[in-house]
């Protein structure tokens, strides 16, 4: 073990520096290059990048739910519907002996920043009662749907995530956190208000009476390019409230055991996106696309990664990937995602799977304003690939590429991004840096 080599393959190519080896062959994953000496030389490794279809995702366990519509001039039209079950406030409590005033659906916004798009856009939302029960045990995914027919309420206007509202609370007026309030129809109000003791004797009987609601955005925008906002149905002010007898009320909440999920769908994506989604696995593009809510992800392949270990064994000291957006492709209403995820295809299903580094504190992926991009430390993942490849007597090639995605949760945001995947451009595009030592 005589020499160490530093290899960086960047968008401009790959830079190697030979250096003296540490006697114990131990490298820290965040070790820099200070102290390395030797001769430098260049080489070139291929990076293949393309936009591919994202798979449906499980949305019944996300922290919040999205509602709204955005019409993006490049990424197309994308919608978010949300489905909810509600729980009885009290078993057997019949209130039909009183006088019904009204029924209102309240959905509390998650936060003042939990939205995407133009808050000045005016959208239309319809509330439908479900006529199909949400299944009690099966997971719900972003491409699922349940039956509904007649609208029982509607809202048209801006999604005011910054504005508190006033509501009636018993005999008083109360100011509450930013919340979307939608008055529901008289026929639906009477259905809940006139529920009898049998309908209210258990949660199962109540769900036979009232299976739940779905919030559906209209494809017709009154102004702007649209907006989506996240709502927290577990929040204090999210509920269906029956007002009666002038000063009385009864609340139906979404609780931990209630079923809820969001459905996403897309239309009219740009021809460049659809072209890349149908391209071969060997295709390469210098701009790729990311869109949350299963819109699109980017595949990154390094097909000749193991060329540096054809005639020798190596140990990985550090591996980094840097991702940057296309200049001018984002703005105030379409900001860059707060973070990205770098994953790998599952060996069996080909679906998104975590890499080892994802569980480490130095993994990265958060937006870096100084870099104007995202940096990932993927040392353990790359090291494992080389360990498997160099295994004696027969190595295994597990180099199946990487997936770059916008996270579906934490935060939930319908973000999108054009990725600068040009190669061999100084301080731009995509960079892959690898530091290794010869054994």
Briefly characterize the structure.
It contains four helices and 28 strands.
Task: Give the arrangement of secondary structure elements.
Elements: E1 3-10, E2 13-20, E3 40-43, E4 48-52, E5 65-72, E6 76-84, E7 100-108, E8 115-117, E9 123-130, E10 148-157, E11 165-169, E12 172-176, E13 179-183, H1 186-193, H2 203-209, E14 213-217, E15 226-231, E16 239-244, E17 248-252, E18 260-267, H3 271-277, E19 287-291, E20 297-301, E21 314-323, E22 341-345, E23 352-353, E24 364-368, E25 373-377, H4 379-389, E26 402-405, E27 416-420, E28 431-438
3D structure, described in words:
The protein has 439 residues and is mainly beta. The chain folds into 2 domains: 223 residues, no CATH class; 194 residues, no CATH class. Helix content is 8%, strand content 39%. 39% of the residues are buried. The N terminus is likely disordered.
Give descriptors for this structure.
disordered N terminus, 28 strands, 8% helix, 4 helices, elongated, mainly beta, 8-stranded antiparallel β-sheet, 439 residues
* Span of the ends, CA to CA: 5 Å
The domain tally reads: 2
Helix content: under 10%
How many strands appear in the DSSP assignment?
28
Low-confidence stretches: 1-44
> What percent strand?
35-45%
Radius of gyration: 27 Å
Q: What's the number of helices?
A: 4
Silhouette: elongated
**Average predicted confidence as pLDDT:** 87
Biggest sheet overview: 8 strands, antiparallel
**What structural class do you assign from the helix and strand content?**
mainly beta
């Amino acid at each position: 073990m005589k020499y160490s080599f530093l290899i960086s393959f960047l968008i401009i190519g790959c830079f190697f520096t030979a250096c003296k080896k540490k006697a114990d062959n131990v490298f820290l994953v965040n070790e820099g290059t200070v102290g390395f000496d030797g001769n430098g030389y260049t080489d070139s490794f291929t990076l293949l990048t393309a936009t591919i279809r994202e798979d449906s995702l499980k949305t019944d366990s996300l922290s919040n739910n999205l509602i709204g519509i955005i019409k993006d001039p490049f990424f197309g039209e994308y919608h978010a519907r949300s489905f909810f079950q509600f729980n009885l406030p009290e078993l057997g409590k019949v209130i039909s002996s009183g006088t019904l005033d009204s029924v209102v659906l309240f959905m509390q916004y998650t936060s003042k920043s939990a939205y995407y798009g133009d808050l000045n856009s005016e959208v239309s939302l319809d509330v439908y009662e479900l006529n199909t029960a949400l299944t009690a045990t099966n997971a719900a995914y972003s491409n699922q749907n349940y039956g509904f027919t007649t609208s029982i309420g509607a809202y048209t206007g801006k999604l005011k995530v910054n504005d508190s509202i006033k509501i009636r609370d018993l005999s008083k007026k109360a100011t509450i956190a930013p919340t979307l309030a939608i008055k529901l129809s008289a026929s639906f109000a009477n259905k809940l208000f006139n529920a009898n003791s049998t309908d209210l004797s258990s949660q199962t009987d109540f769900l036979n009476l009232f299976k739940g609601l779905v919030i559906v955005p209209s494809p017709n925008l009154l102004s702007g390019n649209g907006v989506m906002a996240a709502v927290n149905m577990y929040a204090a002010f999210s509920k269906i409230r029956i007002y009666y007898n002038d000063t009385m009320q009864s609340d139906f909440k979404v609780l931990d055991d209630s079923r809820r999920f969001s459905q996403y769908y897309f239309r009219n994506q740009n021809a460049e996106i659809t072209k890349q989604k149908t391209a071969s696995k060997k295709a390469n593009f210098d701009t790729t696309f990311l869109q949350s809510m299963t819109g699109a992800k980017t595949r990154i392949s390094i097909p000749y990664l193991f060329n540096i270990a054809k005639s020798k064994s190596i140990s990985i000291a550090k591996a980094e990937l840097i991702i940057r957006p296309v200049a001018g492709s984002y703005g105030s209403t379409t900001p860059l995602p707060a973070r990205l995820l770098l994953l790998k295809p599952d060996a069996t299903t080909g679906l998104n799977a975590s890499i080892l580094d994802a569980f480490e504190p130095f993994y990265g992926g958060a937006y870096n304003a100084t870099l104007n991009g995202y940096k990932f430390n993927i040392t353990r993942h790359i090291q494992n690939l080389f360990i498997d490849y160099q295994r004696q007597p027969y190595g295994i090639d597990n180099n199946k590429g990487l997936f770059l995605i916008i996270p579906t949760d934490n935060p939930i945001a319908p973000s999108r991004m054009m990725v600068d995947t040009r190669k061999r451009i100084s301080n731009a595009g995509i960079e892959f840096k690898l530091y290794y030592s010869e054994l």
